[in-house]
Amino acid sequence: MEGGLGALGESFDPGLIGRGSREDGYESRSGSENVEGASGDDQDPTAGTKSSKRKKYHRHTPYQIQELESAFKENPHPDEKARLELSRRLNLENKQVKFWFQNRRTQMKTQLERHENAILKQENDKLRIENIAMKEAISSPMCNQCGGQAILGEVHVEEHHLRLENTRLRDELNRICVLANKFLGKPISPFSGSMGNTDLELAVGRSNFDAWNVPNNDYDNRSMVMDLGFTAMNELLKLAEIGEPLWHRSVDGNGEALNIEEYDRTFRCCIGMRPPNFITEATRTTGTVLLNSMAIVETLMDANRWAEMFTGIVGRASVIDVISSNPSGSRDGSLQLMHAELQILSPLAPLHNVKFLRFCKHHAEGVWAIVDVSVDGSQPHEFQSCRMLPSGCIVQDLQNGYSKVLWIQHMEYDESMVHNFLKPLIRSGVGLGAQRWLATLQRQCECLAVIMSPSIPSAESSVISPGGRRSIVQLAQRMTRSFCAVVCANMYRWDPIQTGNGNDPAAVRLSMRKSQGEPGEPPGVVLSATKTIWLPITRLRLFDFLRSEETRNQWDVLSNGALQQMIHISKGQTDPANRISIYRNTASASVNQNSMLMLQESCTDVSGSIITYASVGAQEMTLVMNGGDSSCVALLPSGFSIVSDCFNNTGWLDDSKGAPSIEGNDSNGSLLTVGFQMLVSSSPGAKLTLESVETVNALISRMVLDIKAAFLCN
């Protein structure tokens, strides 16, 4: 993002954000000299003159000062163990170390107050100068055209503008005072006058962050959260601007991987040290998206729309708390605490529950940045299997409704929770890397543009109306979301059924749930079976085989004859395989109200492919095709998820590259996840029988064997 990042750098001043950047610039002075016996906070006033005569001053050596300063930057509040270690290493008494840190913290607070007061004084002087200029303009108004005295009407207009400007400045100054009150913990009043009510953004001091909307309670935690948001945004911008050696090109040339050693030298982790057994997945990629920047921002800041946009990656998402919002209604400066379930479509992959901050910033005309950073693990009892370091995207408007998006995904996983079968996928960055996020966004935006377009392709116009197209698309999207939930078991209360070794990647994972007949679901006992296998077949070849109606009878154990396509809806122009199809069985002479149709959606991009299908009654499908409500159509979807295996020719990931190995390079195989559902009883109160379990297990096993046989894979 050449032009966008340049403008972004000019409009964004990292020095104005975060408390840490100010602290690093202070020098140590008063903490260099210690009075033996007590600090200013701990002196006993009753000690008398005699004790004061015994006080001795010890000036620390430059080496001691340097070491103490380094320790202070790491932790300004060391515990007893840390102080003892410092005193032993620096040949100081424990009290000397304790009092040095107390004096240093006092000095830091004093310097911060001076800094804030200087800002307030500058704004006060600026406002007074504006007032003087306004008074002079009112007392002797001049006409800009002729140079003579202005008439009364012109004086009124000029006075009105000056009063508006004065109100704006007063409003900004009062808002700075509110912000200073929060950080300093004591009231600061610039001069008499109440706060203005204009919906203006904070333009001086700490960016336009909406601190005045923060509730009065829990100021300390809120200020820490806001500082974390600013720090994460600052890091995201630097990660976007810096090239080599921090980033190096991946093998396929479609993205970049992070140099972890260079990152550790360049940045200080804002959420603490990497936990044991955690590995890093950090990737960066750039591409164009068929959506303008504001629409992308609104989608990302809305939890429901975000989850719908990234079906297959985001299982569930919610906003826990809106910490800051812009009073004008803009997303600029919005900071919210969110929760999400991130998923890889395989029963062998764990769900990643993350609690994170999402901060949105408008940097220049048509340039937005959104950053995520984890806040998991803040409490001792909290367990985290995944955490997000500053990740997100920078969006720049282009012509014709397109946007240029730079996506950075920097995550750490507990590798001990990842099955060995999927470790190459995680390590490569294909699992939840930047390429998968951006590819999904591109595909979904292209689908949205095609579906919402008033023009309908000639192959579809005579069959289905625009309203019917939208209803079918909504039904297909719900079917795919439901399939992803089945594979990851993250949307419903599934009860696992143990039938063998759960650590065996060849084992079938069986689960059951009881549906009470919620809208969009058939009532009864539902049994699901999922399994992930490896095939020495390229992803695209396997995808074409499974989505084609001509080869379906080779693997679909429940098919009764060949299928014939009735209609199809294209979801984009980039790849014709992205489509929704409705099939009928050729064994039926005609479609009647009692016959069943097959709804299928196929999605593919550079990161992977998904095929989902479900049986739908002909009567229900007719209503949907006529533009009816699709939310009440009951579905039990099954399907496939396909990704490149990320193995090299030796059977494991080439760690020396440290970058994704996408299909077309070393990867000649695929990881295929099969998901299958069956309604074993229409009564929610029925008990699951062993016969039903054996039937479903046999069906999915037969399906896997037939797929292998079609490619002559033993």
From TrEMBL:
InterPro entries in alphabetical order: HD, HD-Zip_IV, HD-Zip_IV_C, Homeobox_CS, Homeodomain-like_sf, START_lipid-bd_dom
Stretches assigned to the Homeobox domain: 51-111
Residues within the DNA-binding region(s): 53-112
Signal peptide (from-to): none
Coiled-coil ranges (or none): 105-137
Subcellular location: Nucleus
PROSITE patterns associated with the record: HOMEOBOX_1, HOMEOBOX_2, START
Record's GO cellular component terms: nucleus
Domain (START) ranges: 218-450
Family the UniProt entry places it in: Belongs to the HD-ZIP homeobox family. Class IV subfamily.
UniProt name for this protein: Uncharacterized protein
Organism name: Cuscuta europaea
